[in-house]
Amino acid sequence: MSYHTGKMGVAAGISLVFLITFPYIFLTTPAQTVAIGAGLAWLIPLISGGPPIVMILGMLYAMKMFPGDLYTVCRKLIGRVGAWAVAVYYITMFFCDGVLLLRQFAENTLLTALPSIEFSLVIAIYIAVAGLLCYAGIEAIVRANYIIMPFGIFGLTLVLLLLAPFYNIYNILPWQGTGLENVIPAGFLFAGAQVGIFALVILAPSFQDKRTVRTAAIFGVGMSAVLKSMTVLVFSLVFNTVVAKEKVLPFFEMARLVYLSRYLQRIEALFIILWVILGVMAIAINFYMGLYLITRLLKLPTMRPLIPITGIILAETAMIPPDITTVIVLDELIITTYFNVGVYVIPTMLIIAALLKKKKRGATQCAG
Amino acid sequence: MGDNSFVKMFKAVKRSLIYQPPHLPKPFVLDETADDQPLPFEVDPKKGLKTSAKELDSLLGYAQRLRDFMEESKKALENQDSSRMKELSEEYKILENQHSDISPIRLSFDNEIKPIDRIITASLAENEKIIKELYFLPDNKDVVIRDFIIPSEPPVKAMLVFMDGLIDKQIINLSILQPLMLDECVAKIRIGSDLLASIVDNCLPSNQAKQAVKFKEVADGLNSGDTVLFIDGVPGAAVVETKGYEHRGPERPQIEQSVRGAQAAFAEALRVNTGMIRSMLQTNDLVTEIINVGDRVPVKCAVMYLKSLANPSLVAEVTRRIKGVSTDYVTDLGILEQFIEDHPSIPFPQMLSTERVDRVTAHLVEGRVAIILDGTPFVHLVPVSFFTFFHSAEDFSLKTPIGDFMRLIRLIGTIIAVILPAVYLSISYFHQEALPTELILAIAGARERVPFPAFFEVMLMEFSFELIREAGLRIPGLLGSTIGIVGALILGQAAVSANLVSPIMVVIVAITGLASFTIPDYRLSSAFRIMRFVFLFVAAVLGLVGVAFMLIILTVVLCSMKSFGLPYLVPIGPKTTGGFDIVRRGPVFRQEHRPDALNTQDSRRQPHISRKWIKDQPIGRGDEK
Question: What CATH homologous superfamily does A10-362 map to?
Answer without folding.
Answer: Amino acid/polyamine transporter I (1.20.1740.10)
